[in-house]
Design brief:
heterodimer; A: 317 residues; mainly alpha; two-stranded antiparallel ribbon; B: 526 residues; alpha/beta; Rossmann fold; 4 domains; six-stranded mixed β-sheet; 19 helices; 33% helix; globular
Chain lengths: 317, 526
């Protein structure tokens, strides 16, 4: 795939200026740093696949993160497993709220999630009164979980890897995954084939919400801080990762692998630019440029495909 | 410059005129394939030229070259004998070439007048659009073609036939000298087609050159003066319509003899499988009742807007009826979703196969298994091997041609895409199959294949409902035919009563007029 080549090239260029960047330990660090983006990009990919978009993921992450942080402050004894379940359940619930509005009221997803994005952030504010939950208020177990190392990688990384594997199977080997491709690829035809497009979109939002909720806990515990604005604007990185990863914004085309590579591409750029001493302004400009180039290359690739279709059509009968 | 080739005798040109627009030796290649090689085409003022060819013969490519969307790789475009390059669509429009496409390309949210004058609206002071003048001129043009349309209405409030009128008015508004009509009658009812013919006559009288692309031979012989036949991107014949015959054209098109005879069917219908009683919808149709037996083909004929497709969609669970009942094998069933219908063995192959048929980006096998996923999965997990086996079975049965079952449907030709759609419904093992306009817009060779296949399905004991607006097809294929008008069943015809006149008369609601222009053999019914 083109994107693997792009990432390899990127790493090669960086290694000429800063060889330590491509050391295995640093690459593992970059992966770990990109794990939240990967988790959200998987959920977003599934939503985009069904011809929707979820702009509320970062706000969902912030709200869930604040809720679990508050639980931890009030009841430090609650085990991490329970915290994780609460985070996933709450995130999924928030996702379902988006899903119901799209499914039952037929409101365009971009409008629904723009609204819930603001609502969720507002709820974080109400819940926290605008105050931060700081490191010293959190229990040690709460903070340690994502950093615990298993087989040389932190739990955060493992969760991302497991999510990639699980959703790769869900998307290619289950009826729900197939329904997502069908509903986004051609909603009319999917309806005629007996697929409930609205319900499929509802489940896509639920998955996206659940992943955002889980990431909410991981984010808050890893950075050991929760406040209103965490992950502000992160939803745009998530959408960008999907688009770079070849997910069609028109729906019906995309894969978990694509979302993973898209997220890694962004992750490498964001981690590499500071170490090669590029000014913050140029870092933003270069990230943006990379997004546009990646999308342009993708569009180019699909245009060539268009020619082939034409050829076949002209060639037929 | 016209290349005269056998088996057409050299036809006399309209002696009084030189071609207003001509293609000479035009070639156009796409990567890996030659879409057009060395073709010529001449259009004369006041003359209708029919462009005939099977799907994929290069007709659309020619239209795109004439309208400046594609640039030819070689050869000449001449307007009034002068070489010209249509670099852009605007350049072609400036030269007076305009096209009315099969699916009208108009803007739903704009008004009729705005649609007509988009891009060349009359200007008033300060270069602003003079709305009053625009509406006035739009009304003049619409009146001149006999369209009863208020130019200030938003386009979305118009029916398909009136949208077509707007498209034609738009073509006239740029003072076109050459009008290209790409299957203009495909979406129209009988009455609307008659009006279109009258309009073509009007345009002819105004001295416009018309290129008329159609799959329907009756209309070609009805309105065309000249013909040009393409096959596989090459010119195979051209001349005057008066000097050729339907059989000769078909032979040129396909390069072989194709009988237009419908398949012979002998099997006797079996038990009643589907019974519909008093099916009623709040707005679209009322009181539809009929019984359908195994092995039977039941035709549904009617004009556009008669409520046939709407009824079928309700029967399939896409929309909800307000009254009536459905019985399958004598048992009353409730159908509230397509999944219910498929569960009761009723499937629907929609008319709009592009929008409602296949999922273009998905591979063939996934399209075929889509409505049968309940059978090819366990507890929500897919069994890919079973999906492949299912797809292979039906691909072989329908002679589907593709590199592999993994090929995305969008890479297949139109005919093969249709086979995918039919495969996917047959794979659900239905008892009743509803085919909505099964041969609309496909070439003669494919039509015969679809007809043969339909007969085979019936012979295997499937009950077939065929919605069709083509009289020869209704006559040739159906055991019985129900005629609908304005949402109601008007009559049921079978045996000797099933005649072209009867169909037309009941569909149009006229009792004493013998009118049978749309049938291919007027001598038979008048």
């Amino acid at each position: 795939m083109l994107l693997i080549g792009a990432i390899a090239l990127l790493l090669a260029v960086i290694s000429t200026r800063f060889p330590a960047f491509v050391a295995p330990s640093n690459l593992a660090h970059v992966f770990n740093d990109t794990a939240p983006l990967i988790l959200l990009a998987i959920g977003q990919m599934i939503v985009i696949l069904t011809k929707c978009i979820d702009l509320s993921v970062a706000a969902n992450l912030a709200l869930t993160g604040m809720v679990v942080a508050t639980i931890n402050v009030i009841a430090p004894g609650v085990p991490v497993v329970v915290i994780l379940l609460v985070a996933v359940a709450l995130g999924a619930l928030l996702g379902m709220f988006n899903g119901v509005l799209v499914w039952k009221l037929g409101i365009p997803p971009i409008v629904v999630t723009l609204g819930t994005m603001t609502i969720f952030r507002g709820l974080v504010f109400l819940l926290s009164d605008g105050k931060w939950v700081n490191s010293h208020e959190m229990s040690a177990a709460f903070k340690a979980f994502p950093r615990t190392e298993l087989l040389g990688l932190p739990v955060l990384s493992w969760i991302a890897i497991i999510a990639v594997l699980i959703f790769a199977i869900v998307m290619t080997r289950t009826t729900l995954g197939r329904a997502c491709y069908a509903a986004g690829g051609n909603p009319h035809a999917a309806t005629y084939a007996g697929i409930d497009v609205g319900r499929t979109q509802f489940w896509a939002f639920t998955i996206s919400g659940g992943l955002a909720g889980r990431t909410g806990y991981l984010w808050v515990s890893r950075y050991a801080v929760a406040y209103v604005d965490i992950a502000g604007g992160f939803e745009l990185d998530v959408v960008a990762a999907c688009v770079i990863g070849g997910v069609s914004i028109m729906g019906g085309i995309g894969s978990v692998g694509g979302a993973l590579l898209g997220a890694l591409f962004l992750g490498v750029i964001k981690n590499a630019l500071p170490v090669v001493n590029i000014s913050p302004f140029w870092q933003l400009a270069i990230s943006g440029g990379a997004i546009i180039i990646a999308v342009a290359l993708n569009a180019q690739a699909s245009r060539t495909k268009g020619r082939i279709i034409l050829k076949d059509a002209e060639h037929a009968s | 410059m016209l290349v005269q080739t056998d088996p057409t005798p050299s036809a006399p040109l309209q002696a009084d005129a030189a071609p207003v627009l001509a293609l000479a030796g035009v070639t156009k290649a796409f990567p890996g394939v030659k879409a057009l090689s060395d073709v010529s085409l001449e259009l004369y003022p006041g003359c209708v030229t029919a462009l005939v060819g099977e799907n994929g013969a290069g007709k659309s490519t020619v239209v795109k070259i004439l309208t400046g969307i594609y640039q030819p790789d070689g050869g000449h475009i001449r307007v009034d004998g002068q070489d010209i390059r249509f670099g852009t669509a605007q350049a072609a429009a400036d030269a007076g070439v305009t096209a009315i496409h099969q699916e009208t390309v108009l803007f739903d949210e704009l008004s009729v007048a705005e649609n007509i004058f988009l891009g060349h609206a009359p200007r008033g002071r300060f270069g602003l659009i003079d709305t009053a003048a625009m509406v006035r001129q739009a009304r003049d043009i619409l009146d001149s073609i006999g369209a009863q349309v208020d130019p200030t209405l938003p386009l979305k409030e118009l029916g398909i036939a009136n949208k077509h009128m707007v498209a034609i008015a738009r073509a006239l508004s740029i003072d076109a000298r050459v009008v290209i009509m790409d299957e203009p009658t495909a979406a129209l009812s009988h009455k609307e087609i008659q009006e279109l013919y009258a309009l073509v006559e009007t345009l002819k009288a105004q001295g416009k050159a018309i290129l008329f692309i159609s799959h329907k031979f009756d209309e070609i012989f009805r309105i065309a003066d000249r013909y040009t036949v393409f096959r596989d991107g090459q010119l195979v014949g051209a001349g005057a319509i008066a000097e050729t015959s339907e059989a000769a054209l078909v032979k040129m098109m396909v390069g072989r003899d194709v009988s237009q005879i419908f398949p012979e069917r002998t099997a006797a219908p079996g038990d009643t499988v589907l019974e519909v009683r008093g099916y009623t919808h709040p707005t679209e149709f009322a009181d539809i009742s009929f019984a359908l037996r195994r092995g039977e083909i039941l035709g549904f004929y009617g004009l556009g807007g008669a409520g046939r497709s709407e009824f079928m969609q309700a029967l399939f669970g896409i929309t909800r009826p307000s009254g009536g009942s459905v019985h399958v094998d004598g048992q009353p069933v409730r159908i509230t979703s397509p999944a219910d219908a498929v569960g009761h063995g009723i499937v629907y192959v929609p008319e709009d196969r592009g929008r409602q048929g296949a999922i273009a980006a998905l591979p063939i096998f996934q399209n075929v298994s889509l409505p049968s996923l309940g059978r090819t999965s366990r507890k929500g997990f897919l069994r890919l091997a079973e999906e492949f086996a299912l797809a292979r079975t039906y691909a072989e049965r329908l002679d589907l041609r593709a590199a592999s079952l993994d090929t995305p449907v969008e890479k297949l030709s139109g005919g093969n895409q249709q086979k995918v759609v039919i495969s996917k419904w047959l794979a659900t093992r239905p008892q009743v199959i509803i085919l909505d306009e099964p041969t609309k817009g496909i070439d003669i060779g494919s039509k015969a294949a679809v007809h043969a296949f339909m007969a085979e399905l019936a012979a295997q004991g499937l009950a077939v409902i065929m919605v069709s607006s083509e009289i020869p097809e209704v006559l040739g294929m159906s055991d019985r035919a129900i005629v609908m008008r304005e949402g109601r069943m008007v009559t049921e015809l079978q045996g000797d009563a099933l005649t072209p006149e009867a169909l037309v008369r009941h569909a149009a609601g006229i009792e004493d007029r013998c009118c049978c222009a749309p049938c291919s053999n007027p001598a038979r019914c008048c």
